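Tutorial handout. Part one gives the primary structure; part two gives the three-dimensional structure as tokens.
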Amino acid sequence: MSVKEISEAIESGKISFGIRQCLKIGKKAKNVFIAKDTRDETVEKLEVAKIEFIVLKSKAELAKELNLDFECEVFCLHQNGVPHKGAK
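Part two.
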């Protein structure tokens, strides 16, 4: 279910990758997913910001399933395209 959501968000441009982008969007995020091998300090940052998240597979498994050429710990889905300046 959630890997499918991430894949659809990538296709529609309604996703941001990484903890920094997620913290910029904050509670406006539709869904936040993290890899099960996410670093403790990253999880703590999300908890301090009171951003709810769902834990998925490992970074390597997610990169392979989503056909990404990089590994990512945090996937932030948003409702209406890219919500911040400077993003493409």
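Part three, for discussion. Strands lie at 15-17, 31-34, 54-55, 74-77. The longest helix spans residues 2-12.
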